[in-house]
Design a protein that fits this description.
Number of domains: 1
Structural class: alpha+beta
Radius of gyration: 15 Å
Strand content: 25-35%
Oligomer: single chain
Order of helices and strands: HEEEEEHEEEEHH
Length: 183
């Protein structure tokens, strides 16, 4: 636990030093400098200032959103997407939970076939990264993974556990936004 150093230090200890940041209406989106699995990491920073009511447990949850995207994705597209999803979260006052799917009208990023975002535990990183406890309270880190419409349909039809089983068996590169769908 890095409670004395704060959430930014927790994130930087796994993702590298914050390289750049963009201020939006209610929070920032930041890019980290450490290369990550053939891509680069972006996250919200400040979304966790807002307590969001879980529809499952009825508890207040604070969270930040993470995306790991290939270098080919334009920075503006990445930051705009994270801002849009974060603002939707705030508008509904409901956190994104593991297994949720954020659906888009069309591709979530230009020049891809991915039409949704799957909310996952950040399994590409050590378990300790997934949550932070410190002066800001307990904060969950939700990984947004771009998925194809057929993958979103699988989550909706069979549940997130079944989808994660298929993911584990197929072992796709979840950073590759141009990967073929696994179903």
């Amino acid at each position: 636990m890095m409670g004395d150093q704060g959430l930014p230090s927790h994130l930087e200890s796994y993702l590298g030093t914050i390289k750049a940041g963009w201020k939006f209406d209610h929070f920032q989106v930041v890019e980290y400098g450490k290369p990550m699995f053939g891509g680069r990491a972006f996250s919200t920073l400040g979304l966790s200032r807002y307590a969001l009511k879980s529809p499952v447990s009825n508890k207040d949850i604070k969270q930040e959103l993470l995306m790991i995207l290939p270098e080919s994705v334009k920075t503006k597209d990445a930051t705009t997407l994270l801002d849009r999803v974060g603002e939707q979260v705030l508008q509904h006052s409901v956190p994104l939970l593991r297994g949720d799917v954020v659906v888009s009208k069309g591709a979530v990023l230009p020049r891809t076939r991915m039409e949704g975002l799957y909310v996952a535990a950040p399994v590409y990183l050590p378990d300790e990264f997934a949550s932070y406890s410190g002066r800001e309270g307990k904060i969950a880190i939700a990984w947004l993974v771009p998925i194809a419409s057929a993958e979103a349909a699988l989550v909706n039809d069979k549940g997130w556990s079944a989808f994660e089983d298929v993911l584990a068996n197929a072992d796709p590169d979840l950073v590759d936004v141009r990967r073929p769908p696994i179903v």
